[in-house]
Amino acid sequence: MNMITNLTELSGDGRLAAPAGLAGEGSRTLRAGFIPLVDASVLIAACEFGFAQKEGLTLNLVKDVSWANVRDRLAFRQFDIAHMLSPMPVASMLGLGSNPSPTITPFSLGRGGNAITLSTRLFARMRETAALPETAGALENAHALAKVIGELKARGEPLPTLGVTYPFSSHNYEFRYWLAAGGIDPDRDVKLVVVPPPMTSDALAAGAIDGFCVGAPWNMVASERGVGRIVAAKQDIWPSAPEKVIGMRPEWAETHPETVSRLIVALDAAARWCDRPDNHDALAEALADARYLAAPVDIIRRVLAGEFNLDDRGNRRIIDSYFAFHAGFANYPRPSQALWIYSQMIRWGQTDLSSAGMTAAAAAYRPDIYRLALGANVAPLLDDDIRVEGALDGDRFLDGQIFDPLRMDDYIAGFAVKSSALGGHAGDEI
Question: Is 311 exposed, middle or buried (0-12, 13-18, 19+ CB in 10 A)?
C-alpha cells in the first residue's frame, strides 16, 4: 500500500503559504544559537566575514552546549534562528520529543562532516576477531564489529556503549544505519547514549563510551589523541544526506518575510565563500577561535580539506568534498530528504507511518521560502522536490537500498533490521 500518491498531497495542508512579498522591516539583529562544530561554518562566516552585514543584518551568535538546549531556546523565543540537526524540524512538525514546538527550515547549511569513531581497544579486537585489514571500508568495519559483538555475547561480556548527540539526529540515524547494514541491532546489540559533541573525545578516552558518531572536528580530535579509530564517514552511508539546517519558528518566518529573505541571501553568499578552498585558511582561523569551536586550527584546516588521520598510527584517508557548503544544491531544503528522515524515525520506533505524518514531515523543509529569496533559477526543478534518493552513481546508500518517498511502507518493510515495536516513542529516548 502506498500512503501518498503525488506531490500535491505532500505540499498541501501541512505547509504555510510562502510570504507574499517584502515588507520593509529595516535592519535587524538576529540572536542565533549554535553548537561548536565545523558544520556551523556558513552561519559563522556570514557573521565574521560581512555577508550578514551586507544584507542589513547583525548576527548575535550564542554558543550552546546541547541540541536540547538549542531546541528549547528557539521554542521559548530566546533565539530567533538556530543551527540545528536536519531531523530536528521534522521531529518538531511531527510533535516528537520532550518539548515539541513547530520548527521549519528554509535553508540547509550543507552536507557532510559526520564520522563514526570507535575506541582503539574495540577496533583492535575487531582486527583480531575478523582479520580486518587496515584498509577495510565502512561496511567491512560494520561486519567486523558484528563478529565482535557475537563474541561478547557468547562470553557474557558487556556490550559496547556508543554515543550519539541527540535522539532526533543525523548521527543517531546514520550510526543505526551503519550498524544495521552490518547485521547489528542498535536496540539490542549495543547501548546508545547521548553525549554532547565536544565531550565525545574525552568520554572515549575515559572509557565511558566505546564509540561515537558526531560531526567534525571531534572525530579527528579523538584519532589524533590516540583514543579512537575512524571507521566510517557520512559519505559512506549516504552522500546526499542533509546535515545541519537553519531552524526557525513558522510564525516568526511568516511575520518577518524580508528578514528571512535577507538571511537566506547572506547565508547563500557565505556558503559559496566557504566552498572555495582558497578561503579555508581564513575560515579555519575563525572557527578555531574560543568564541566558536575552540579546537586546534590545524585539525580544522585538514578536516575542511577532507584529510583524515584515521588513528595515531599513520593510517590516512582523503574524502573529496567531505564538506559541501554550497555545491550541488547543498543548501536546498529538499522535502524528499525530510521524508527519508521520517522513514528512519518510523524504522526505529519513534513514530508511526501515516498520511498526516508524511505531510507534516515534508512541511518541515521549505523550498518555497528558499526560492522566494534567491529565485527559481538557482534552485532545482520543482519536480525534484520529492524524488527517489540513492539511485544515482555517487549517491548510493551503504546497503544498496533505494528510497522512493511514494513507497514509504515498502521501503521500511524491506529492512532486515528494524525496531520490533514500531511507534510509541514520543520522548527523547534513544
Answer: buried
What count of other Cβ atoms lies within 10 Å of the Cβ of residue 169?
26
pLDDT at 17: 45
Find, among 61, 39, 62, the residue nearest to 52 by Cα: 61
Residue 88 — very low, low, confident or very high, per pLDDT cuts 50/70/90?
very high
Q: What does the H/E/C string look like for 325-390?
A: CCCCCCCCCCHHHHHHHHHHHHHCCCCCCCHHHHHHHHHCECHHHHHHHHCHHHCCCHHHCCCCEC
- Tell me how far apart the alpha carbons of residues 335 and 227 are, in angstroms, rounded to a whole number: 38
Strand partners for 57: 28
Cell numbers found for residue 271: 556558503
> Could you tell me how many residues make up the chain?
430
Domain architecture of the chain: domains with CATH? 7-112+241-296+324-413 (3.40.190.10), 114-240 (3.40.190.10)
Q: Are 79 and 33 in contact (CB under 8 A)?
A: yes
Question: pTM of the full predicted structure?
Answer: 0.93
Across the chain, what does the average pLDDT equal?
92
Rg over alpha carbons for the chain, rounded to the nearest Å, is 21
Give buried/exposed letters for 218-229 (b at 16+ CB in 10 A, else e): bbbbbbbeebbb
pLDDT tens digits along 302-336: 999 999 899 998 999 999 889 999 999 999 999 99
Q: Which of 163, 158, 151 lies closest to 208, judged by CA?
A: 163
The answer to whether 62 and 31 are in contact (CB under 8 A) is yes
Tally of CB atoms within 10 A around 383: 8
Backbone angles phi, psi at 286, to 5 degrees: -65, -45
Q: How far apart are CA 181 and CA 365, in angstroms?
A: 27
**Residue 106 scores a pLDDT above 50:** yes
42-55: b (≥16 Cβ within 10 Å) or e: bbbbbbbbebbeeb
Q: Which of 238, 250, 184, 235 is nearest to 211 (CA)?
A: 184
Tell me the per-residue pLDDT of 172-216, one tens digit each, with 9 for 90 and over. Answer: 999 999 999 999 999 999 999 999 999 999 999 999 999 999 999
Q: Show the CA angle centred on residue 246, arms to residues 7 and 64, nearest 5°.
A: 145
Q: Where are the alpha helices (DSSP H) in 132-277?
A: 138-155, 170-181, 200-206, 218-224, 234-237, 250-255, 257-275
Give the pLDDT of residue 7: 45
